Amino acid sequence: TKYSIAVIPGDGIGPEVVAEAVKVLDAVTEPAGITLDKTTYPLGAEHWLATGEVLSDETMDKLRGHDAILFGAVGAAPNDTRIPSGILERDLLLKLRFTFDHYINLRPATLYPGTTSPLAEPGDIDFVVVREGTEGLYAGNGGRVRQGTEHEIATEVSINTAHGVRRLVKYAFELAQKRPRKKLTLVHKHNVLVNAGRLYQETVNEFAPQYPDVTVDYLHIDAATIFLTTDPSRFDVIVTDNLFGDILTDQAGAVTGGIGLAPCGNINADRTAPSMFEPVHGSAPDIAGTATAQPVASILAAAMMLEHLGHEDLADQINQAVRRDLETHGNEQRSTDQVGDHIVAALKAA
Ligand code: NAI
Ligand code: MG
């Protein structure tokens, strides 16, 4: 079997962590007789500075032809005035998500043995956030009138379609049913956001009878942030909108021992375009070039990519190797490539 993979290493630590993810991918696929045919695309802040191109339609067409995209991170240092603010977010990251219809933003949160949570009693943290990826407050539906005057009005109107909510909720139920605890928590704010909130709640209510073995729960977003620090083990699958999901998954990264361990899948579950897998973190310009970046988030994202391609067994091998590696070496000072080498060794020892 052969897959064609687009690799977008990006800026800063992006190329450093992606190199380790590729190392681990090759180590797990080659013995299984699977070939990953990789094409690297130089996109990001440095590419824009060198060429003036953010992401051309020609490049989009090429990307569309791949089976999946492995992404590092893009962006310059926040104080780098050479890059106009928001251009990479809007014209690169959001362009990819919207054009390739990545309507599922999948973010697992796991507390691994050997990693330390800042929580006093973290318990067993193992949940996954199914965040909506193409609608809500990220739809860019708004504007500014009387701009610059004291009577200015800025609007940012959340878009929530029945189609968008249904495909999200259905995906979340299917995922909950496959997991041992089979619990689905809708997180929203339907007491105040009565329009969008009720559409979400009614959609969950409508699907629930088709999944009788899935326990359904509901929390307002504010309460959810409390429980995420006081009782995170109560969560299994969380389904939520685009902005709530963004905030909740940063918090989830923090309680599970840090941003260097959190992966993300931008998934088109209908497979009409390639899905994209990346660490949650950014390009970390503050530590770029020091070989101290933690590559585990990128390695776990690569495992999610293999699962999406239908190789759950190989994904599981990577996840187990990461688990064993963190258990053994989690608290040691290691360089980026040492972590990759150790995880490859853990794979081979299995
Ligand atoms: P960041 O995630 O890059 O860094 C935040 C902090 O976490 C920094 O102190 C960094 O050193 C640390 N950190 C991040 N990843 C780490 C890792 N793997 N190992 C060890 N430490 C790690 O977020 P920040 O600083 O807000 O953004 C930096 C640049 O990245 C900006 O240009 C931003 O726009 C971009 N960015 C890109 C994203 C993407 O490509 N999807 C996502 C988030 C930010
Ligand atoms: Mg974020």
UniProtKB/TrEMBL annotation:
NCBIfam families the record matches: PRK03437.1 (NF002898)
Name the UniProt record assigns to this protein: 3-isopropylmalate dehydrogenase
Record's keyword terms, sorted: Manganese, Metal-binding, NAD, Oxidoreductase
InterPro entries (UniProt xref): ICDH/IPMDH, IsoCit/isopropylmalate_DH_CS, IsoPropMal-DH-like_dom
Keyword Oxidoreductase listed: yes
The keyword NAD belongs to this UniProt entry's keyword annotation: yes
Enzyme class: oxidoreductase
Protein species of origin: Kocuria carniphila
UniProt cross-references to Pfam families, sorted A to Z: Iso_dh
Residue stretches making up the Isopropylmalate dehydrogenase-like domain: 4-343
GO molecular function terms attached to this record: 3-isopropylmalate dehydrogenase activity
Enzyme nomenclature, EC number: 1.1.1.85
Needed cofactors: Mn(2+); Mg(2+)
Domain of life assignment: Bacteria
